[in-house]
Amino acid sequence: MKAALMLALALTAGAAQAGRSCEARAPDAVNVQRAMTLAEHTAHALDASGAQVVVLARSGQDLTRYGLAWSHLGLAYRDAGRWRVVHKLNQCGSAQAAVYRQGLGEFFIDDLHEYKAGIVVPTPAVQARLLDTLSDNGRVTRLNTPAYNMLAYPWSQRYQQSNQWALETLAMTQEPAATSRERAQAWLKLQGYEPTTLRLGALTRLGARATAANIAFDDHPNEKRFTDRIETVTVDSVFAWLNRSGLGGTVQVIR
Amino acid sequence: MKKNLMLRFIAPAVALALALHAPVRAHPHASDASMLSALPIAVSVAAPAMIFSGGVMLTVVAVEASADGTVWMLERASDGARASVTLSAAAAAGLSVAAGTAVLVTAFSAGWVLSAAGRAIAYIPNEIGAALLHNERLTR
């Protein structure tokens, strides 16, 4: 039970961390240097790519046991020669989250599992449709739902996790009719997006729900939930879909 | 942008970086797949050139409150050269830095990290580092 619970908690903002209050704790000096160096290398790589917009991922947690290389997704764009990342952050393991615009430094300053960046460059047409929205605070937050669930169901609008916000916002920019979360999700289905299916047993689900404020399962359909299939939006599933659909290239890894 | 740099003795690179970098608000304690660390970014620095060389050990000789936040006076043992580093009160709140604390300066491509016992107590961005920093909350 304990081991199973910890598996689930590995998905939850490093739940060991996420469950606790937001205590201020100075980061390891070496990690600050590694994060800022990664941010610098990423900026160089993005400059060299010629792109104006990229889909950017970090590896905050070791999710390899689930077959996942990345944990968190943001939409990065060039703004007056500097790269900015718009992404959604959960607050201190609570059931709430907010959208931020940050530098590459803030994006990577964290106790990352692995100091690497994942980049997918969308096609020029996809980038062009994203670019104006990313600098517009009203538009870029239009599909944000503050109610946060680390394992939110991809086809529900009750909660929204970070990767889901990024994916739905991308959809909104590509399809003029995708003016709501429901419509953005419909477009994503139509375009062949497939979420990751995690196998989480009943005890794991129960433990996670009881322990972490930022995990819920009540947005998942019963027939899936009770057969231990928890679908959610992962970075890896978004990257795979972008490439499969022709909307973006292959994943480039920067260290 | 509020100018709160002490102009005497400012190392040029530090001054440039800080001029480019608006006073930093306390970082949000937010997380997704992990908790965003509370990185204390220096609001301003006044220091003679070269005191922030990699590998230099400094000692905190005083910790003072100012209108801009918390000011640390640092001294280099070898020649008594002094530097002051200002952090926002919120950034300094979680740090246990007092007179007598030994501070190691690490220089790297994006600036300097000041650390005590392996923990980063301040990050001082240079021009490269400042270009990589921005923090803006878009929703409540």
Please summarize the sheet with the most strands of chain B: 7 strands, antiparallel
Largest sheet: spatial strand order of chain B = 1-4-3-2-5-6-7
Beta-strand segment tally of chain A: 8
Main beta sheet of chain A: 6 strands, antiparallel
Question: How many domain regions of chain B?
Answer: 1
Radius of gyration based on Cα positions of chain A: 17 Å
Average of the residue pLDDT scores of chain B: 76
Helix content of chain A: 40-55%
Average pLDDT, all residues of chain A: 89
Structural class of chain A: alpha+beta
Please report the two chains with the greatest interface, counting residues with C-beta closer than 8 angstroms to the partner's C-beta.
Answer: A-B, 60 and 43 residues
Rg of chain B over CA atoms, rounded to whole Å, is: 14 Å
Poorly predicted regions of chain B: 1-36
Helix content of chain B: 10-25%
Low-confidence stretches of chain A: 1-21
Order of helices and strands of chain A: HHHEEEEHEHHHHEHHEHE
The coarse silhouette of chain A is globular
Structure description:
The complex is a heterodimer of chains A (255) and B (140). Chain A is α+β, with helices and mostly antiparallel strands and 255 residues long. Chain A is built from eleven helices and eight strands. Chain A has one domain. In chain A, 40% of the residues lie in helices and 19% in strands. In chain A, a hairpin with a 6-residue loop joins strand 3 and strand 4. The two termini of chain B are 24 Å apart. By secondary structure, chain B is mostly beta strands. Chain B is built from three helices and eight strands. The chains are: A alpha+beta (255), B mainly beta (140). At the A-B interface, helix 3, strand 3, strand 4 and helix 4 of A face strand 5, strand 6, strand 7, helix 3 and strand 8 of B.
Please summarize what this structure is.
Chain A has 255 residues and is of the alpha+beta class. Helices cover 40% and strands 19% of the residues of chain A. Chain A is globular.
